[in-house]
Amino acid sequence: MSLQDEIDLKSKEIHTENLSMSIGEVMSMYSDKDLDIHPEFQRFYRWSDSQKSRLIESILLNIPIPSIFVAQRPDGIWDVVDGLQRLSTIFEFIGILKNDKEELIRPLSLTETNLLPSLDKKKWQSGNGDSLTEAQQRYFKRSRLNFVIIQKESDSSSKYELFQRLNTGGSSLTPQEVRNCLLIMSNEQYFEKLKELSDFEPFINSLNISDKNIDEQYDKELISRFLVLKDVEPSTMSSVTDLGSYLDDQIVVFFETKFGDWATIKDVFERTFKLIEETVGENAFKRYNLEKRVFYGGFIVSAFEMVALNIAKNIGKWETQKDQIESKIIECWQKISDDNITWKGYSAAGRLPKTISVGQEVFA
Description:
The protein is an alpha/beta fold. The protein has 2 domains: 167 residues, no CATH class; 176 residues, no CATH class. Helix content is 54%, strand content 9%. It has 18 helices and 7 strands. The strands form 2 sheets. It has a 5-stranded mixed β-sheet. Strand 3 and strand 4 form a beta hairpin. Helix 7 packs across helix 8, helix 9 packs across helix 14 and helix 15 crosses helix 18. The longest helix has 18 residues. The model has no long low-confidence stretch (mean pLDDT 87).
């Protein structure tokens, strides 16, 4: 297939429309539940009050803001693909924003901005003179936002592809936060199951990662790797050039195809990390100094891939031979030294075939 054929084919799969709407009209859509801004996504966005105030400043000064992308569902509801933080900020300022429990969120109090320092402490409505005037409120509600609508006739994967592209690169979201949102857009239960595993105490204890890592969803990143990679052969990973994109695609596929077998998946996960915690604890995912015969340093993901994935593959065996697990981990590091294996300079995708192969050979 030629490049032009590919362009023609893919362009037919995505149908979009541009539409300008007043903020007042958008408020009505939100109140009538015709616009789904995914309130559960709010946990992954970290706009400060200063950033929110700058958005309100832009609207008041008629400074253009980027288009908001929505996907039209078969039931006619607009699903926000990109622009959640902008819309959430507007609704929070006006005082109509609700969380995922349908509870009203406390209205936003603005902070001073460069162009409008008098915005400091301003609210939409206030009983002490800090409100916008009625004229300012009317102007605000008549201000227009540009929407790009992905029509329901588009290919079903279009909104996920678009969300992924718009929320990576320059975004403040980490790769796993984008992945979490993709799971929620596909089926909120998928994310809840992922979160359920991340709360398993032996898993948390064996990682020994920082609070900052957890806040940025790195624990769920590791679970995504565990679920997707556990049964993947090293030869398969050799053809993967970008691990992040691979995980984005495969974690949704994993849940779609294996959700019905969740009890077994959860059981293997919990048995694996309970066993690791009981036998070696946080040492399981550290480097090992062969000369000094000691584990050292902090958590490294290559050790996680090498140890956790391969213990899980044979969990029944290692539950009966738990006294050998620490020596097997040391054997992995011995093999790395003997075979002069290195992954310095390799991307995550380039490293994986090596780490999985070493662990697979030792823990088989």
